[in-house]
């Protein structure tokens, strides 16, 4: 078939295969076996072409052809990335004749034109031109850094963060983008050019990446650079209406929001103005839920908000239902998320199996402001008043029943997230101005708010994986990154333009920032440590203690240089306290010790001297917060936040598209062992869970587990260790395969016992997924059924060759006899009352068991790796695994069909 | 015996003979979803930027699916349900029929939201020869059961049951629908119609279960009636599947008269053949086409677990019964 191409000017030309091949060839530069790869991409491109395809579509078709081969070999990722870069270069810099040195030159030369044109067209801030030596900045640009990108990261960066021209076309290259962000955070420096180059070096090397809003808005006119806002909605109609407006304005400024509605009076509570009763918080929340839908933020980020409610609110049972997919739409939140703000009092009542009382905040207005012992005392008074008939309304349920209801909703709808009011407030260094009533959209921010203050936080994240050198952490580099990131974040506050006065006030008086971490799993994989191992827990301590120390030291330095933040006086900082010192207060008020190892793993750090320095002044009310980094983690090509690998291969469904994520560390290991080609299809078939692939050595399988095969207690332990050093909190995503409610209750109870401040989204492993398309599937063979094959066995084949495939199906053993399920080796968080593995428990104390049949310990000692020869046998409901001579009962899915459902469709 | 004339014992769920059907029923209940969970605003914006050929492909696909879901229901109600004696199968089929209705209403929801000429779309399946052929194909086998006198106790009656089931479940749901899903999901792969894509995820999850039920059912009938295992009948069934693929070729030509970025009629045909080979093998029949899967990107679209950035995208992976359903205790 003759194919014609429609060019940009509308003219047609004959399709030229050579030209395509050459461009793919250039993208495959420096690879092993380039010809095979070029041929593959070219062939895959050709089958998707049609007559009259445009040149732009042709470019996309080539990129897509490379992308769909990534699962075969990550080299195709590089090819796709380079092809995509080429289109950006062409758009922004014009034709460079595919000549690399010409490209480099153009890239440098065009930079000052880019800034000037941007300013002229009103796309960039005029300070971008005025405050900088553009030639000097241009010569600091390093286009080679574009080689650091993976395809999904580059594509996200361009879609979400890059500034477009008036016609919504590409206006900047990735390196221009990083330089723009660096410049947009340096206006007020004495030597803006020098500092911009320092910040650029860090960001373009993916050593840290600024938060999303900063990447979008730095360097543009009226820059709204903050990521998080936390606002309280007060119990009067005027403030509710104002809050709806505030939510819309702040959403437009591209921040995520937390909104507490605990203060809103209950359904049926009297209204004094017209002698009627209130309809409760739900209808008002629904207005906000609808309002944020309207804010799409130009497709770059979506309006997003999380409602917070304390669970003593009488309408809390209705709040739990907000995210259900069925029911009256006016009582459901389709867009907003929900989180519950839980007191120690509640957790203790769960533990003691006591009753839980719920009140109308109109009658118990001070509860929302109190925490710790004071909360408990006041709560007890209200309980007595309720029982004495002195309250207009109250409800009473067994505390465990409400706890269960929360977790059932969490399993079913992934909401509400559990966050803990008391550790958040008792461990805060910054709540001298008032109580912290909520966390934010991603449960990592802990800042106080009231009617005059909408809390604001400004984020950036360090990429741990970019700080490794020869299997070690490059501590010197990490210190440099921490200090520069803190300075960049502090700079941001004076440049930031916020649309609501209460937010401006809080931002300028607290100067709250949150430096986070990403690439945690990426780093421990490279260092050879499984996520659920004591070594990883100690490593967590090391990393976070170090970052915490350097961040605090840098903020104290900045205070000396620039002055303390306004609310410093009276803060815990001003008393010489650092985050680790606040554990004691929490333990005292709670009346029990935290179930976590409190020791330092960096004994050389001189905290005592730092305490003295802190007492003299701090530049920022808060310093650390570990955000989920779902997007900037991708930009940096690493694992987000402190998350485990979701699976060794999986897809991400994001606003910028659906991407395949494949673990490059694992691929490298397997290629080194010459195993990759043998197992790559199997890895897809098993949906990224390699635990049952016998060809892969056990120690590799230990390190590269999926999020559902890592013990959930490990997620808690990592968060608990990090939380010791982090002054705000961490977005702790949770992953569960087991739906047993008692176990889930214990997992979250353990989180509380270990002093974790907050948990985040709960991912439940689906029991049933759609039939796979690209791997071999035969449902009948899996059932051990043969269908019509018997006919052909008797009479020989009727048609051509593929008969052996039909007979292969016959020989397939029935499923009952197969034990090759993707089960991990460490699952004693199951019913193992009698047989427990002997493990070194890496914690000081062990939590009390209050939920039946659950083992609360972190399983597995790092050394305990199952040998390949370990036998397996099945005994009724369990199978018995023999590892190092010991027998372990391994739970099989209790519904035998469940096992069949898990893989049967594939 | 799973097939036969209705008798009063058919209303006893216990003792349960076909546990697989009951388990599929339970999973189906967990998969429950509703169209209104999908927000289509951004898809509407995508729509406004799509080319005519792209729009045609979407409309044509919708025009096929909307009535097709109801044809499946008719086939279940008249050609499958009445001849089954297993109450656990009846439970499953009741849920499946609700799902088909839900899919129809789901497509309806999209049709009502998008700026379509609805009358025109509703009539496409009555006016387009390639689509008429597809519907005739399925109805032909159903008619043999409904209009001619069928005695399910005879070998010929049982064969008609299998023919109808293969035409509906294997060819229509298991091959034609699958290629439709691939086409619909290809838009998401280019970052268009992402929310519609989420709905297709759900439909595909349901359909995977339908297919599983159908294959279980066919296998059970064959096991219980070995007299059906003849070379002639096997060849006939194989030919039935091949006929289905042939009909689809003309349809794909109408779906992509020109082609769009990433897709053209040949490409889709190859995918249909790839899926058809898989179905043949599942029936224990030899492959016919021996082609590779052209849509390698489907590994990203459907084959691996999906991590959703939930405040950007509807999470389609949750299940609705967590913590509520009692697990079967028979094994403890």
From TrEMBL, chain A:
**UniProt EC number:** 1.17.4.1
* Taxonomic placement: Bacteria, Candidatus Staskawicziibacteriota
Q: Which SUPFAM superfamilies match?
A: PFL-like glycyl radical enzymes, R1 subunit of ribonucleotide reductase, N-terminal domain
What protein does this entry describe?
A: Ribonucleoside-diphosphate reductase
Query: Signal peptide: which range, if any?
Result: none
Q: Name the family the entry cites.
A: Belongs to the ribonucleoside diphosphate reductase large chain family.
Q: Which residues form the ATP-cone domain?
A: 3-94
Which reaction(s) does the protein catalyse, per the Swiss-Prot or TrEMBL entry?
a 2'-deoxyribonucleoside 5'-diphosphate + [thioredoxin]-disulfide + H2O = a ribonucleoside 5'-diphosphate + [thioredoxin]-dithiol
GO cellular component labels: ribonucleoside-diphosphate reductase complex
Q: Summarize the protein's role.
A: Provides the precursors necessary for DNA synthesis. Catalyzes the biosynthesis of deoxyribonucleotides from the corresponding ribonucleotides.
Q: Name one GO molecular function term.
A: ribonucleoside-diphosphate reductase activity, thioredoxin disulfide as acceptor
Entries under InterPro entries matching the protein: ATP-cone_dom, NrdE_NrdA_C, RNR_lg_C, RNR_lsu_N, RNR_R1-su_N, Rrm1
Source organism, top-level taxon: Bacteria
Alphabetically sorted, this entry's keywords are: Allosteric enzyme, ATP-binding, Deoxyribonucleotide synthesis, Nucleotide-binding, Oxidoreductase
Q: Name one GO biological process term.
A: deoxyribonucleotide biosynthetic process
UniProtKB/TrEMBL annotation, chain B:
One term of GO molecular function: metal ion binding
Write down the chemical reaction(s) this protein catalyses.
Answer: a 2'-deoxyribonucleoside 5'-diphosphate + [thioredoxin]-disulfide + H2O = a ribonucleoside 5'-diphosphate + [thioredoxin]-dithiol
Catalytic class of the enzyme? oxidoreductase
Q: How is the cofactor bound?
A: Binds 2 iron ions per subunit.
UniProt keyword list: Deoxyribonucleotide synthesis, Iron, Metal-binding, Oxidoreductase
The EC designation for this entry is 1.17.4.1
Any one GO BP annotation for this protein? deoxyribonucleotide biosynthetic process
- Kindly list the positions annotated as binding Fe cation 2: 100, 173, 207, 210
UniProt KW Ubl conjugation keyword: no
Summarize where Fe cation 1 binds, as residue positions: 69, 100, 103
Q: Which PANTHER family match?
A: RIBONUCLEOSIDE-DIPHOSPHATE REDUCTASE SMALL CHAIN (PTHR23409), RIBONUCLEOSIDE-DIPHOSPHATE REDUCTASE SUBUNIT M2 (PTHR23409:SF18)
Q: Briefly state the protein's biological role.
A: Provides the precursors necessary for DNA synthesis. Catalyzes the biosynthesis of deoxyribonucleotides from the corresponding ribonucleotides.
Q: What's the protein here called?
A: Ribonucleoside-diphosphate reductase subunit beta
């Amino acid at each position: 078939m003759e194919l014609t191409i429609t060019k940009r000017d509308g003219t047609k030309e004959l399709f030229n295969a050579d030209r395509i091949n050459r461009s793919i060839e250039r993208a495959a530069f420096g690879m092993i076996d380039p010809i095979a790869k070029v041929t593959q991409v070219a062939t895959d491109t050709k089958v998707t072409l049609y007559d009259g395809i445009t040149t732009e579509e042709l470019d996309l078709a080539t990129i897509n052809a490379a992308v769909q081969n990534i699962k075969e070999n990550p080299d195709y990722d590089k090819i796709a990335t380079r092809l995509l870069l080429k289109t950006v270069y062409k758009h922004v810099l014009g034709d460079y004749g595919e000549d690399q040195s010409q490209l480099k030159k153009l890239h440098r030369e065009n930079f000052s034109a880019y800034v000037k044109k941007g300013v002229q067209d009103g796309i960039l801030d005029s300070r971008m031109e005025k405050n900088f030596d553009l030639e000097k900045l241009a010569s600091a640009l390093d286009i080679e850094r574009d080689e650091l990108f993976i395809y999904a990261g580059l594509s996200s960066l361009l879609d979400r963060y890059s500034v477009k021209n008036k016609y919504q076309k590409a206006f900047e290259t990735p390196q221009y983008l990083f330089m723009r962000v660096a410049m947009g955070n340096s206006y007020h420096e004495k030597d803006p050019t020098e500092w911009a180059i320092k910040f650029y070096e860090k960001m373009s090397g993916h050593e840290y990446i600024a938060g999303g809003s900063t990447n979008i808005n730095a360097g543009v006119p009226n820059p709204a650079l903050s990521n998080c806002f936390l606002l309280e909605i007060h119990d009067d109609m005027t403030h509710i209406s104002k809050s709806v407006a505030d939510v819309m304005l702040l959403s437009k400024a591209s921040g995520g929001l937390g909104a507490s509605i605990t203060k809103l009076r209950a359904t049926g509570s009297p209204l004094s103005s017209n002698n009627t009763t209130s309809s409760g918080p739900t209808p008002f929340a629904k207005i906000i839920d609808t309002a944020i839908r309207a804010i799409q933020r130009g497709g770059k980020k979506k309006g997003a908000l999380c409602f917070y409610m304390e669970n003593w609110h009488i309408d809390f049972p209705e709040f739990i239902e907000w995210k259900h997919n069925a029911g009256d739409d006016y009582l459901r939140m389709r867009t907003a998320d929900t989180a519950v703000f839980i007191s120690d009092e509640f957790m203790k009542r769960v533990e003691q199996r006591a009753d839980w009382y719920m009140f109308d905040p109109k009658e118990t207005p001070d509860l929302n402001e109190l925490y710790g012992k004071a909360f408990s005392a006041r709560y007890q008074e209200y309980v007595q008043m309720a029982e004495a008939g002195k309250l207009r309304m109250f409800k009473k349920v067994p505390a465990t029943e409400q706890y269960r209801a929360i977790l059932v909703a969490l399993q079913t709808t992934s909401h509400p997230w559990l966050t803990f009011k008391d550790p958040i407030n008792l461990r805060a260094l910054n709540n001298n101005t008032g109580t912290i009533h909520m966390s934010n959209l991603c449960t990592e921010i802990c800042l106080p708010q009231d009617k005059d203050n909408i809390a604001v936080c400004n984020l950036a994240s360090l990429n741990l994986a970019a700080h490794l050198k020869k299997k070690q952490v490059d501590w010197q580099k990490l210190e440099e990154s921490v200090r520069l990131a803190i300075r960049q974040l502090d700079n941001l506050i004076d440049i930031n333009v916020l649309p609501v006065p209460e937010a401006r006030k809080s931002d300028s008086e607290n100067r709250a920032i949150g430096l986070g971490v990403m690439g945690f799993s990426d780093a421990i994989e490279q260092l050879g440590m499984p996520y659920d191992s004591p070594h990883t827990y100690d490593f967590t301590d090391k990393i976070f203690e170090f970052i915490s120390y350097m961040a605090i030291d840098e903020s104290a330095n900045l205070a000396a240089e620039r002055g303390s933040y306004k609310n410093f006086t009276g803060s815990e900082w001003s008393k010489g306290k650092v985050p680790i010192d606040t554990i004691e207060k929490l333990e005292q008020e709670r009346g029990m010790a935290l179930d976590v190892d409190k020791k330092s793993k960096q004994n050389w750090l001189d905290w005592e001297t730092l305490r003295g320095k802190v007492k003299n002044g701090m530049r920022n009310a808060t310093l650390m917060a570990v955000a989920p980094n779902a997007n900037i983690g991708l930009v940096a090509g690493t694992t987000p936040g402190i998350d485990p690998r979701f699976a060794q291969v999986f897809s991400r469904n994001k606003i910028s598209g659906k991407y395949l994520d494949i673990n490059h560390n694992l691929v490298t290991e397997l290629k080194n062992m010459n195993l990759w080609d043998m197992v790559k299809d199997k890895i897809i078939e098993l949906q990224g869970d390699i635990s049952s692939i016998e060809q892969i050595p056990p120690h590799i399988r230990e390190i590269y587990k999926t999020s559902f095969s890592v013990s959930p207690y490990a997620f808690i332990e990592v968060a608990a260790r990090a939380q010791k050093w982090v002054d705000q909190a961490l977005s702790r995503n949770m992953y569960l395969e087991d739906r047993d409610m008692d176990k889930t209750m214990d997992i979250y109870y353990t989180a509380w016992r270990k002093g974790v401040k907050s948990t985040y989204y709960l991912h439940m492993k689906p029991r049933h997924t759609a039939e796979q398309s690209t791997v071999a599937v035969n449902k009948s063979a899996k059932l051990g059924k043969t269908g019509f094959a018997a006919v052909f066995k008797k009479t020989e084949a009727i048609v051509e060759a593929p008969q052996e495939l039909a007979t292969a199906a016959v020989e397939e053993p029935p499923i009952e006899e197969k034990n090759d399920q993707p089960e991990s080796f460490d699952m004693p968080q199951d019913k193992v009352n009698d047989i427990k593995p002997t493990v070194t428990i890496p914690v000081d104390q062990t939590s009390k068991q209050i939920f039946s049949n659950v083992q609360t310990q972190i399983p597995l000692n790092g050394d305990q790796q199952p040998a390949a020869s370990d036998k397996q046998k099945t005994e009724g409901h369990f199978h018995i695994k023999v590892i190092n001579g010991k027998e372990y009962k391994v739970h099989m899915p209790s519904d035998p069909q469940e096992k069949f459902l898990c893989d049967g469709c594939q | 015996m799973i097939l036969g004339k209705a008798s009063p014992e058919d209303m006893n769920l216990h003792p349960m003979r076909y546990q697989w059907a009951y388990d599929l029923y339970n999973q189906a209940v967990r998969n429950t979803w509703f169209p209104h969970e999908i927000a289509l605003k951004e898809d509407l914006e995508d729509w406004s930027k799509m080319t005519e050929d792209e729009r045609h492909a979407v409309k044509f696909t919708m025009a096929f699916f909307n009535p097709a879901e109801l044809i499946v229901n008719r086939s279940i109600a008249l050609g499958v349900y009445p001849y089954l004696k297993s109450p656990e199968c009846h439970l499953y089929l009741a849920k499946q029929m609700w799902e088909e209705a839900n899919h129809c209403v789901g497509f309806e929801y999209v049709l009502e939201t998008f700026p379509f000429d609805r009358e025109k779309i509703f009539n496409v399946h009555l006016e387009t020869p390639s689509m008429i052929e597809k519907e005739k194909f399925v109805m032909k086998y159903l008619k043999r059961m409904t209009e001619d006198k069928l005695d399910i106790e005879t070998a010929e009656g049982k064969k008609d049951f299998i023919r109808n089931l293969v035409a509906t479940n294997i060819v229509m749901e298991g091959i034609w629908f699958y290629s439709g899903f691939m086409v619909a999901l290809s838009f998401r792969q280019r970052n268009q119609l992402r929310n519609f894509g989420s709905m297709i995820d759900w439909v595909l999850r349901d359909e995977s279960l339908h297919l599983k039920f159908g294959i279980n059912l066919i296998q059970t009938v064959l096991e219980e009636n070995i007299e059906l295992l003849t070379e002639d009948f096997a060849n006939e069934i194989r030919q039935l599947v091949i006929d289905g693929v042939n009909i689809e070729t003309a349809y794909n030509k109408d779906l992509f008269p020109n082609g769009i970025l990433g897709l053209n009629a040949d490409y889709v045909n190859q995918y249909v053949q790839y899926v058809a080979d898989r179905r043949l093998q599942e029936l224990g029949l030899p492959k016919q086409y021996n082609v590779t899967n052209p849509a390698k990107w489907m590994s990203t679209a459907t084959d691996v677990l999906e991590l959703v950035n939930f405040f950007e995208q509807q999470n389609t992976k949750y299940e609705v019964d967590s913590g509520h359903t009692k697990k079967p205790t028979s094994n403890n």
